[in-house]
Prior knowledge:
Blueprint: E1 8-10, E2 33-35, E3 41-43, E4 46-47, E5 51-56, E6 65-71, E7 80-88, H1 92-120, H2 129-141, H3 147-167, E8 177-186, E9 189-195, E10 199-206, E11 209-214, H4 224-232, E12 236-239, E13 247-250, E14 257-259, E15 265-266, E16 280-285, E17 290-296, H5 298-301, H6 306-314, H7 322-337, E18 346-352, H8 357-380, H9 382-399, H10 431-434, H11 437-445
Antiparallel strand pairs: 1-11, 2-3, 3-6, 4-5, 5-18, 6-7, 7-8, 8-9, 8-15, 9-16, 10-11, 10-17, 12-13, 13-14, 17-18
Helix pairs in contact: 1-2, 1-3, 6-7, 8-9
Amino acid sequence: xxxxxxxxxxxxxxxxxxxxxxxxxxxxxxxxxxxxxxxxxxxxxxxxxxxxxxxxxxxxxxxxxxxxxxxxxxxxxxxxxxxxxxxxxxxxxxxxxxxxxxxxxxxxxxxxxxxxxxxxxxxxxxxxxxxxxxxxxxxxxxxxxxxxxxxxxxxxxxxxxxxxxxxxxxxxxxxxxxxxxxxxxxxxxxxxxxxxxxxxxxxxxxxxxxxxxxxxxxxxxxxxxxxxxxxxxxxxxxxxxxxxxxxxxxxxxxxxxxxxxxxxxxxxxxxxxxxxxxxxxxxxxxxxxxxxxxxxxxxxxxxxxxxxxxxxxxxxxxxxxxxxxxxxxxxxxxxxxxxxxxxxxxxxxxxxxxxxxxxxxxxxxxxxxxxxxxxxxxxxxxxxxxxxxxxxxxxxxxxxxxxxxxxxxxxxxxxxxxxxxxxxxxxxxxxxxxxxxxxxxxxxxxxx
Length: 448
């Protein structure tokens, strides 16, 4: 398990919010709530006291992003699981939904098994009855799992999930797959499991300044350790002429499927050539300064920096609207920065770590004053206001130093101007010659 792999960036000055409270006053998402056998509360959209979630379809077709939140996860009061999944390929939306519906329960079972295993090592013969019961309660419902055990839970459940997907009759995942970024909050612990190029970013405070802390690594094919594994498996990594800044994973003999990440569920045509479904696992102990965590697909991070995301969420009038406002701002950024591109699907979950009413209420009152001033100014001079807004955003971007965890800390991967960056190329590999061992096994079981 890695440490909290992060890059701290302080936000200098105050970001002028463009959020008009009136645009979101009527916002009230449908809260579809389901219950698991262990009492967990499951949501795939909406919000709760500590969570806001929202997704919006882009202009590439069906929305392939999905997400879920499990409260009282594993049956433990206060424990929360959040997951955001970004599908790609012809049936990426089905893969994404399949992972969303099955991964949390597999991980939950792995955690319960680890808790039981941990309790077995406690020697009850050396303890009195009261101490024994205290140890039992701690072992079964508190932060007793070791860090290597947490990593083992994620690795085991992700591997089982990939095997389950390979055997799924109704979901063809040979040339389709999805990424996953997941966070578990248990007490004062954050455990993050990441597969692919979605991202989790923490907002914390230092001397009254908001700081963005990237909790995950964008797992791209050009990262040296990822590229080495791919080359050892005879896969290829290169950028096409039309996308010189986007490195992709290709099969040995065909220029396909051209995957823009080095780890993913599904995509079994590449599983023999370096693509894996093993997540990176990170840990962070929550402090009093930590405010919230944002999990989002690359549709958000391609157009907004970590600092911009943190400031948008910190400036929302209400927690329940945080994810929707963030997604809307990302869509606006796509249109402004890349007018010739197709907007990508966007999905985000905002997990608030404590009662940060002081931060939000201050932002709300400030934004309300700015909103009133903006409407008054806008009514007097529409065109000059628009011009000032654009120039302000440009200067703000120049002042922001956004951290990227990975190979180069001073650089961010972003969408290409004028191009619709896809996560995989539409050309499909020839099945007969390149059938993955895992998928071919599945086909034999189906009698094909």
